[in-house]
Amino acid sequence: MERTEKNRPTTEAALAALMGEEESGRNVVQSLTVLPGIDKSGRPEGFESLGFVAGEVVCIVGATGSGKSRFLADIEWLAQADTPTGRSVLVNGEVPDLEGRYAGVGRLVAQLSQNMNFVMDATVGEFLELHGESRGVDVSAQRAAEIVAAANGLTGEPLSLEQHLTELSGGQSRALMIADTALLSSSPIVLIDEIENAGIDRHAAVEVLKGADKIVLIATHDPSLALSAPRRLVVVNGGIAEVRDRTAAEVVLAGRLRTIDGLHEDLRSAIRRGDGLDGFSADARLPG
Amino acid sequence: MKLITVAGPPSCGKTAVILKTVVELRRMGVAAGVVKFDCLTTDDDERYARAGIPVQKGLSGSICPDHYFASNIEETFAWGLQQGVPVLFTESAGLCNRCSPHIVDVMAVAVIDNLSGINTPRKVGPMLRTADVVVITKGDVVSQAEREVFASRVRQANRRARILPVNGLSGQGAFELARLLRDEAPEQAGVTGSRLRYPMPSAVCSYCLGEQRIGAEHQIGNITPLNLTGGDL
Question: Which of A10, A141, A189, B104 has its CA 20 to 30 A from that of A65?
Answer without folding.
Answer: A189
